[in-house]
Specification:
The protein has 125 residues and is an alpha+beta fold. The protein has helices at residues 12-35, 96-99, and strands spanning 50-51, 59-62, 65-68, 79-83, 89-94, 111-113, 118-120. The chain is elongated and about 50 Å long. It has two helices and seven strands, in the order αβββββαββ. Strands 1-4-5 form a three-stranded antiparallel sheet. A two-stranded antiparallel sheet has the order 2-3. It has one domain.
């Protein structure tokens, strides 16, 4: 008889999905900045502004043109991301902790790693 330790696989698909979304967020920010030929975002212009994929939150304005990060993503995010004016992702959190439960149950079994700036499976106590 063989008993597999399936607990070592728990959350791995979730953390991969979360980090894929993280990559899409960063790509959308870079794309808006590149299309606007800007080194900084026009927004966010306040601190503690989390982006969950909606329009009018993370963008570049150049003359009469606006390059919105939301135009480079498909649908809302399952997390909310704190973005600074340089376009860097400073922090991320489960969506319902900052925006309410907008799109259903957020990812469970993962957490933001502030050192490596990505999602991870929590360390065992």
């Amino acid at each position: 008889m063989v008993a597999l330790n399936v607990s070592t696989f728990f959350g791995r698909g979730t953390v991969q999905a979360a980090n894929t979304e993280l990559h899409q967020v960063q790509t959308a920010i870079i794309s808006a900045m590149a299309d606007g030929e800007a080194a900084t975002l026009t927004s966010p212009n306040t601190t503690n502004l989390y982006w969950a994929g909606g329009a009018g939150t993370v963008y570049v304005e150049v003359g009469n043109a606006t390059y919105d990060g939301a135009d480079y993503v498909y649908g809302p995010f399952r997390a909310a991301y704190l973005i600074d004016t340089s376009g860097a992702i400073v922090e991320a959190t489960h969506l319902n902790s900052v925006c309410g439960d907008i799109i259903g149950s957020p990812w469970s079994g993962i957490e933001w790693d502030p050192v490596n700036k990505n999602w991870k499976i929590p360390d065992s106590p």
